[in-house]
Amino acid sequence: MKETIIIKNLVKTFTLSKKQMQINRTKNPLKIAVNDISFTTYAGEIFGLLGPNGAGKTTTLRCIATLIKPDSGSITVDGIDLEDDVAIKKKIAFLTNELKLEEQFTPNYLYDYFSRFHDLDEEVIQTRKKELFERFGIDKFSEVKIGELSTGMKQKISIAISLVHDPEIIIFDEPTNGLDVLTAKTVTDYLIELKERGRTIIISTHIMNLVEKICDRVGIIINGKLTLCDRVDNVLNMYPNTDIEGVFFKLYSEEENNEYI
User: Fold this and answer.
1) CA spacing 20 to 30 A to 64: which of 8, 75, 93, 113?
2) Residue 199 in contact with residue 42, Cβ under 8 Å?
3) Is 132 among the domain residues?
4) Residue 83's domain is classified under what CATH number?
5) Nearest one of 220, 124, 197 to 164, comparing CA atoms
6) C-alpha dihedral over 183, 202, 133, 130, to 10 degrees?
7) What does the angle CA 1 – CA 204 – CA 192 come to, to the nearest 5 degrees?
8) HEC secondary structure over 76-115
9) CA 196 to chain centre
10) Using CA atoms, how far apart are residues 128 and 216, in angstroms rounded to an integer?
């Protein structure tokens, strides 16, 4: 299998404000968000990062997407070193639920704008837009201002815009967070289709059954540490008579107990 992302000994720390130190009940101004994480992803797979809020999932993804620089460790994306951020951005799509679309613009305008930003041919832009808009049901709302659309529709538009350049690697932070059941299924079905086309998909989530349902491999992050990384079926075999949720809570309990030893 082709290796697409290789992460070795990734470390990222943040400096806490006085208020954040009070909230975290600590006198240490440094928080280790990602603590010596290593893993590899492959073409044609969905890799799930599972963990509670604040575990380090989003920080890891932002490092891969070149949005923030790690303190130490290395990341290569399709053989490209992290320093070449322009080349990496051409190969990836990165979607976070913090992405805010300009509400006065329409889906049509935003899609065309971001497509041209990637220097795509006009015929390619229109063909791909038709495909994505029909897939996600955006076509009926293509000339409606973003501010007038539902949360689910905004999420689907964000996904379409993230995929304008047909990237080889798709990174989604909480892709189904806040979506209704039907919209969430539309999104997960498309992720599976992209996987079958040979794309690499990384999703971070705290939804346990989503990982079990669509992911080939899973990495469980707790307190910034990658406590487990393996194929989903192997994980379930290692912990018989339970599911991914049960495995997670077992590892979480062990990690929390270790913190106090």
Assistant:
1) 113
2) no
3) no
4) 3.40.50.300
5) 124
6) -150
7) 50
8) EECCEECCCHHHHHHHEEEEECCCCCCCCCCHHHHHHHHH
9) 18
10) 27
Find the domain containing 10 and state its range. 3-97+169-259
Short-list 164, 148, 68, 60, CA closest to 105 = 148
Residue 133 confidence (pLDDT): 95
Per run of 10 residues, the mean pLDDT along the chain (length 261 residues) is 94 87 81 94 96 89 93 94 88 82 93 90 93 93 94 88 93 82 87 95 89 94 94 92 90 72 41
Distance CA 187, CA 196 (A): 15
- Dihedral pair phi/psi, residue 255, rounded to 5°: -65, -40
CB 50 within 8 A of CB 218: yes
Amino acid (one-letter) located at 133: F
Q: How far apart are CA 148 and CA 140, in angstroms?
A: 13
Q: Would you state the pLDDT for residue 98?
A: 65
User: Is 161 a member of any domain?
Assistant: no
Give the list of residues 6+ apart from residue 216 with CB closer than 8 angstroms, or none: 45, 46, 47, 195, 231, 232
Instruction: Indicate the pTM of the whole model.
Output: 0.90
Phi-psi sector, 244: left (phi>0), alpha (psi -120 to 50), beta: alpha
Q: How many domains does the chain have?
A: 1
pLDDT for 261: 41
Tell me whether residue 174 is in a domain. Answer: yes
